[in-house]
Each structure stands twice: as C-alpha cells, then as structure tokens.
Design brief:
- The chain has 488 residues and is of the alpha/beta class.
- It has a single domain (5-302, 387-483), classed as Alpha-Beta Complex (Amidase signature (AS) enzymes).
- It has helices spanning 10-18, 24-42, 50-63, 93-96, 107-114, 157-164, 181-186, 221-231, 275-290, 306-321, 340-351, 354-367, 372-393, 419-423, 430-435, 465-478, and strands spanning 45-48, 74-78, 118-123, 143-144, 147-151, 170-175, 190-193, 213-218, 261-265, 294-298, 399-403, 439-446, 453-459.
- The strands form two sheets. Strands 1-3-2-6-8-7-12-13-11-9-10 form an eleven-stranded mixed beta sheet, sandwiched between helices. A two-stranded antiparallel sheet has the order 4-5.
- Helix 2 runs antiparallel to helix 3, helix 10 (306-321) packs across helix 12 and helix 10 packs across helix 13.
- The longest helix has 22 residues, at 372-393.
- The two termini are 20 Å apart.
- The model has no long low-confidence stretch (mean pLDDT 96).
Length: 488
C-alpha cells in the first residue's frame, strides 16, 4: 500500500478509487495510521471512530461504486456536530461527563455520509465553540502541525490541524466569527464560511444562532467546492436555510479572473499588524493584477465597531442557548445540591468552563431590563450598518481581499488570562459573520523565521460562493503554497 495516500486531496483520491488503483480500505487505513502516528503531538481528535470507519470502507469496496466525488473519502467532524450514537460533547464537561450520544444526525454529516464519505471521528474545539485557540476545550489544546508550540486556532482547531497534518482528507467545521477561517489559515488549509443559510445548522450545537454557519476545511479550493456542493441547500429541519438553487461549485472553477474587480479595504491594514502578513496579502493582490483582475482601494467604515458589536450580540445569544444545559434533561448532574436553585448553580458551575461562564454573564447583563436598549439594541443597529458597508462595496467590486488575521499562529498560553486579546484574534473575520456574507481563506505564504502559514481572505456577496471560490482557485493555481507540508 502506498504510505502517502493520506496526503491526497479529495479529487486525487477519487480518481484513484475510480480507476481501482487504490481501495477505500487502503485510503482509510492510511489516514488512521497517520492519525495514530502524529495526533499524540497535536491532540486534534477527541473521539476516534476507526473501527466503524474501516467497516464502512470495506462495505464501499465490496460495492465497488465510486460515482460521487466523496464516496469512500475519510473526514473528521467538529465535536459540536451531532452524529447518531457517537459521543458528541462540544468539548464541554457538561456533556462529556454524561457520555452524551445523540439519537439523531446533523444534516451536514448526514449529507456527506449519504454519498459514502467516512467519518473518522471528532475534531477538538473550544468549549461550545467559544474561543480562538481550542484552549477552552475540556480535552486540552490542539497544537499547530507547523509548530506544535503554537495553537492551531479555534474554534475549529482540531479539524484544521487534522486536515493540515493529513489525518483526513477534509473536515466539517462551524464558523460564527472566524472559527473555520482562522484555524484553517493558521494550519495552512483552505476553509470556507458559507453565506448564512446556505448550509443547514440542524444537529449542530448552537452558540449564536443568528451568526452560526457550517462549512468545509480542505487541502485545496477544488475540494472546498466538492464538499460545499454536497452539504449546501434547503433543509426542512432548519428554517433559516435559504430556498436558493445550489450550483455545482466545481464548475465555477475556471480560473479566469480577467476583469474581476477586487477591493482592498483600508480598515483591514492596521497598526500592529505583522509585517510579513501584510506583505504576503499585498503580494497576493499584485498577483491578482498580473492575472488580469482590477484591484482598487475601498472603505468599510464601520469595521472598527465590529468586534465590540460581535461581543455584545454573541454573548446575548450564548446566554439564551446555554440555558438548555440545566443538568436535568441531559448533561452534567450533581448530587450535592440542597434545592433546585442550588442544583442549577452547581451543575452549571461544575460543567461550564470560564469562557462559557464569562459569555453567559455578559450576555445576560446585556439583555437585562435597563440595559437591553443601551447594549443589545444598539449593537443590532450597528450590525445593520456593517452589513450596509458590504452591500455598498459590492456595488463596485466583486470580491473583497483582506488578511485572515493580523498575526500568524501564537504560542500556546500566550494570551492566557487576557480574553480581550483573544477576542481580537478575529478582528478581520467577525464582520462577515455579522453581515451573513460568505468568506474563505487560502494560503498565501509563510513567515520567514518560523515558516508559519499566512492566510489570504476573500469575501463575496450573499450567495456569492462561486465567485470567491473561482478567485481563490485562480490564485491557488498560480502559486504552490498548498503543495508545502508540515514536517511531523
């Protein structure tokens, strides 16, 4: 068996499976062997479903049909997705201690499994996706495959590290304010946040319901298009999904960007930004110009209020969504309580970590009588202005080009005890979440000193995934960043 099968992209593996050059069992076993070899350094996987995965692979081999691009392709799913009869914890002790196994399947995982994709297990995440480094996970931090002394990002850090380290061929994550795009950028992968409502959130544990989205993390832009084409679309189980036709996104990847209008917002090139990050992004803009695109400076004037707005609205929705974890219907329980109020207090105190408690308290305060108008209502008004900035910009440009983050992956523990600094990790990404716009990251270089990946971010108009996918594909084909692999 080829020992490098785990390094294949989805498209490459599909071609080999169709030609019978490899078997699904060999491909799955290669990913499992890779995970068992390197994951002790990374802590990307918090639950391993290897035996069942091999059983599924053997069934697919016996049928011998690889009609869909995802048939027989091993993947990892973030631990806030529910998989039927599989431990699903949100990386929180509230669910971990009771071994919660959902009696239902999320729509996104159901759709990829329906065409034959094989789940290898669960990827680490910040507790209930609240964080930017996986350091709030009850399973401990996930480390970056390019430098294990650094974080893989968050909250989909386990998924990004697993893809970046070739433990799987793709992963499914969720993105509220950057939780797919930031870790994908940190780990040298491509990651896409779809338009709000493009992909069903059914069966995905909610953090902030008006911002949460589902999307893929992959090794290439083509792979992103393949997965998105499979998981996107109207879902009767999720009333927020749009009744909008889903194109075959792979057909949008023609690589021609001549005449494409690209905007560079001045608000995204700020003081304190890593010089190498800024240079890599501006070099990428120059590359687009060489390919025939038209790059112009634009302004998104309300960007400076995005983080503050995000951290009023999101904790408010967290306060509501976390109320279901009361220790009675499911989740962590306690025997030490003296009455019902004491029971709630102890179950949630023992079950939730510090960041979850912090957001619950902030959100409850913002929603309380006397403060609702001053904080939550005002934040919603600013959110509308941020959305209008994007709508206005897309009257003149097709794509907005920005850095994915201000600095590359930081040292594990560097921001411990400084939640504000952690919140600012998503300074370039929360605006898309607040506005519902699609965005994706692709590699655009490496730092010279530590050879850490640098991410390039592309934002498109609502339902405009095809536009940003083709722009990203054109750039990817012109460069060789995705061919570089971490030394594990």
């Amino acid at each position: 068996m080829d020992s490098m099968l785990h390094t294949l992209s989805i498209a490459q593996a599909h071609e080999k499976l169709q030609k019978k050059e490899i078997s699904c069992t060999e491909l799955t076993k290669a990913c499992i062997d890779r995970a068992e070899s390197v994951d002790k350094k990374l802590n990307a996987l918090v639950y391993r479903n290897f035996e069942r995965a091999l059983e599924e692979a053997k069934k697919i081999d016996a049928e011998g049909e690889f009609t869909h691009l995802l048939t027989g392709i091993p993947f990892v799913v973030k631990d806030n997705f529910c998989e039927k009869d599989i431990p699903s914890t949100g990386c929180s002790n509230v669910l971990r201690k009771k071994d919660y196994r959902p009696p239902f399947e999320s729509t996104a995982t159901a759709r990829v499994k329906a065409v034959g994709a094989i789940s290898l297990g669960k990827g680490n995440t910040d507790e209930f996706t609240m964080g930017a480094s996986t350091e709030t996970s009850c399973y401990g931090v996930t480390r970056n495959p390019w430098d294990p002394s650094r974080v893989a990002g968050g909250s989909s850090g386990g998924c990004a590290a697993a893809v970046g380290a070739d433990e799987c061929l793709f992963a499914l994550g969720s993105d509220t304010g950057g939780s797919i795009r930031q870790p994908a950028g940190f780990c040298g992968c491509s990651g896409l946040r779809a338009t709000y409502g493009r992909v069903s959130r059914y069966g995905v544990m909610s953090m902030a319901s008006s911002l949460d989205t589902v999307g893929p993390i992959c090794k290439s832009v083509e792979d992103i298009a393949i997965v998105l084409s499979t998981i996107a679309g109207k879902d009767p189980l999720d009333g927020t999904t749009g009744d909008v036709p889903v194109p075959d996104y792979t057909k949008a990847l023609h690589g021609d960007v001549k005449g494409l209008k690209i905007g560079l917002p001045k608000e995204y090139f700020i003081d304190g930004m890593d010089e190498q990050v800024e240079k890599a992004v501006r070099d990428a803009a120059t590359q687009f110009e060489k390919m025939g695109a038209v790059v112009t400076d634009i302004s998104l004037p309300h960007t400076e209020y995005a983080v503050a707005t995000y951290y009023v609205i999101v904790p408010s929705e967290v306060s509501s969504n976390m109320s279901r974890y009361d220790g009675i219907r499911y989740g962590h329980t306690t025997d030490a309580a003296t009455d019902l109020i004491d029971y709630y207090h102890l179950a949630r105190t023992e079950g939730f970590g510090d960041e979850v408690k912090r957001r619950i308290m902030i959100g409850t305060y913002a929603l309380s009588a006397g403060y609702y108008d001053a904080y939550y209502r005002k934040a919603q008004k600013v959110r509308t202005l941020i959305r209008k900035d994007f709508d206005d910009a897309f009257q003149n440009v097709d794509v907005i080009l920005t850095p994915t983050y201000p600095t590359p992956a930081f040292i594990v523990g560097a921001l411990e005890g400084d939640p504000i600094a952690m919140y600012l990790q998503d300074i370039f990404l929360v605006s898309q979440g607040l506005s519902g716009m699609p965005g994706m990251t692709v590699p655009c270089g490496f730092t010279s000193q530590n050879t850490l990946p640098i991410g390039l971010h592309l934002t498109g108009p609502q339902w405009g995934e095809d536009t940003i996918l083709n722009a990203a594909y054109a750039y990817e084909q012109a460069m060789d960043w995705k061919e570089q692999k971490p030394n594990l």
